[in-house]
Design a protein that fits this description.
The structure holds two protein chains of two kinds. By secondary structure, chain A is an alpha+beta fold. Chain A is built from four helices and 14 strands. The longest helix of chain A is centred in the first third of the chain and has 13 residues. Chain B has two domains: 180 residues, Cytochrome c-like domain (Cytochrome Bc1 Complex, Chain D, domain 2); 138 residues, Orthogonal Bundle (Cytochrome Bc1 Complex, Chain D, domain 2). Chain B contains 15 helices and two strands. Chain B has a two-stranded antiparallel ribbon with strand order 1-2. The chains are: A alpha+beta, B mainly alpha. At the A-B interface, loops of A face helix 4, helix 5, helix 6 and helix 8 of B.
């Protein structure tokens, strides 16, 4: 009994600290606050963000181009107003030089029926009339949008070629226990012609284009 | 003592097996293997019962007036008879005919255009549709949490009272997976319990020659998409499969429906344009509209004399399954 207790506590003592992966949404130089008005020079108008949510999946840690740690079959719903962090529990202290992850839900999970946790359709990230998860959702307001209440809604999803919107991202890392990943919404929006493109609610060419754009604006702090 | 131990372990072993196995779907050996992955949603009596209760409960709609069964009636093989287009809350009329629900465990894509990729996810479509049930899954969860006997039913089915979207969907699937139609005269013949009449036999031969390619035995569909020469209804402009894939070769393609239980499921086709089997056969004989995507098998129409037509219909009638339609286990739960 004592022996078992000893092994247990030894295990506990030597277990490395989990690696914390944090997403930090920004608007230009400011960290992004929900419903706050920001000014965008590109559109010469103000912009506010009401919600930002996306699926983070298939996280890999890489050393010299080889995967040394992998989180399989786990989809995390990152949500600016609820959850911005994910912890990785590695068995030992790891040396790695980059991190890989996907933004979106893989095509196998897309066709696997009802699932729980972050993939439960009650999370509001599932299209009901045409099966498929919304991989990335950004909603906000800008006077430049000629829509009801000036809202823009980007519901980016689609898992079937040619409208596959899952995006694979690789970033170099320095700090090995706290990985902070910035997502610059201002830069992302500056690539979109908000006046004309402000309602995307189903898989299309435009969705694919936007998914490539936001994929470019994840960076290591 | 030894005997006791063996006995106890035997009981444990047997009960472990039966618990693990859960409830088994029964279907004839000439059916293929189900496409639904039953390992991911182990059937149990309690969950099936919960699914049945949900299926018949208008609590799933916004104003608590419409249940799944409002459009899918057991007495019509779960189709919506007499209505060419389905009716939902506030008498709003949809754009398509409600299909029969049967042998769903063998389908991969659902809806006339295949927009739904899994049976579990299907229920979300009518629940959210503003003209069908106009409700949201989250609000349903709130309502179910406050409504007896649901917390108890969920506890029995899933061993805890927390109601989630996943559990609602899986329970609805479990009930619908049980809707197996395999007791028609055709099935009795396959099982060597009955014989076709001469006329039915002649009809069967005509069927195999002209229809089986798409309406493939024993489920009477190969569940792919085809254009069977229906002229587009310009009041609906429904382009079928194209609406999902946006590929021109899918324009005006619709899912091939099963031909089981036709006598119960009128009207026919995605928009319910035909009221009788006779009209359907006449369409195949002389109503085919030529178009780029028309199925090659139908380019020349189907040649049938009027006697042959009667024979073919006699065979189609053998696909009616009254044991399925009047199965008490599928009807409104009392």
């Amino acid at each position: 009994m004592i022996f078992i207790g000893f092994i247990f506590s030894a295990f506990y003592l030597f277990k490395p600290k989990p690696i914390t992966l944090s997403f930090l949404p920004y608007f230009g130089k400011d960290s992004l606050v929900i419903n706050k008005n920001y000014f965008s020079e590109i559109i010469s108008d103000s912009v506010s963000i009401q919600s930002l949510r996306f699926y983070l999946s298939d996280i890999n840690l890489i050393k010299n181009g080889r995967i040394i740690y992998q989180v399989k079959n786990q989809h995390n719903l990152i949500d600016i107003s609820q959850k911005l962090q994910v912890k990785l529990f590695t068995k030992s202290e790891l040396e790695f030089d980059s991190i890989q992850f996907d933004i979106g839900v893989d095509s196998l999970s897309q066709v696997s029926g009802a699932m729980g946790g972050d993939l439960d359709p009650m999370k509001g990230m599932y299209w009901s009339w045409q099966s498929g998860y919304i991989n990335f959702k950004l909603e906000g307001k800008s006077n430049i949008c000629n829509t009801r209440n000036h809202v823009f809604q980007f519901h980016i999803g689609g898992y079937i070629f040619p409208y596959n919107t899952i995006q694979h991202i690789i970033l170099p890392v320095q700090n090995k226990t706290n990985i902070n990943i910035k997502l610059n919404i201002k830069k992302m929006l500056s690539q979109i012609d908000l006046k004309n493109v402000n309602q995307i609610m189903s898989p299309s060419e435009k969705s694919v284009e936007i998914s490539k754009q936001y994929a470019n604006f994840f960076s290591i702090e | 003592m030894k005997f006791k131990i063996t006995l106890i372990s035997l009981i444990l072993f047997v009960s472990a097996i039966t618990i693990k196995k859960g409830f088994q779907l029964k279907y004839p050996d000439y059916f293929p293997k189900p496409t639904y992955d039953l390992k991911k949603n182990i059937l149990t009596k309690e969950t099936i019962a919960l699914g049945r209760t949900l299926f018949y409960d208008p609590i799933l709609s916004k104003n608590n007036t419409i249940s799944c069964a409002s459009c899918h009636s057991s007495f019509n093989a779960f189709a919506h008879t007499d209505h060419s287009l389905s009716h939902g809350i506030d008498d709003l009329i949809g754009t398509r005919n409600a299909p029969a629900l049967m042998n769903l465990a063998w389908q991969k894509l659902f809806m006339w255009d295949g927009a739904i990729n899994h049976l579990d996810m299907q229920a979300l479509a009518p629940i959210n549709h503003p003209k069908e049930m106009g409700e949201s899954i989250n609000h349903i969860i709130d309502k179910l949490n406050k409504t007896a006997p649901y917390p108890t039913l969920f506890k029995k089915a899933f061993r805890d009272t927390i109601i989630t979207g996943e559990k609602i969907l899986k329970a609805l699937s479990q009930f619908q997976l049980c809707l197996i139609s395999a007791e028609s005269k055709y099935d009795q013949v396959k099982k060597n319990k009955k014989q076709f009449s001469d006329q039915e036999n002649r009809g069967y031969i005509l069927f195999k020659k002209n229809c089986n390619f798409c309406h493939t035995e024993p489920l009477f569909s190969n569940f792919t998409f085809a254009n069977n020469g229906l002229a587009i209804d310009t009041t609906l402009n429904d382009f079928g499969r194209w609406q999902v894939t946006k590929k021109s070769e899918d324009s005006l393609m619709f899912k091939i429906p099963s031909l089981r239980n036709l006598s119960y499921t009128y009207p026919y086709m995605h928009d319910g344009r035909f009221n009788t089997i006779n009209q359907v056969i006449n369409h195949y004989i002389k109503g085919i509209k030529q178009s780029a995507n028309l199925a090659p098998e139908l380019k020349k129409g189907i040649l049938l004399s009027s006697n042959e037509k009667t024979d073919l219909i006699a065979f189609l009638i053998t696909l009616n399954d009254s044991a399925f339609v009047f199965n008490r286990n599928f009807a409104y739960p009392k």
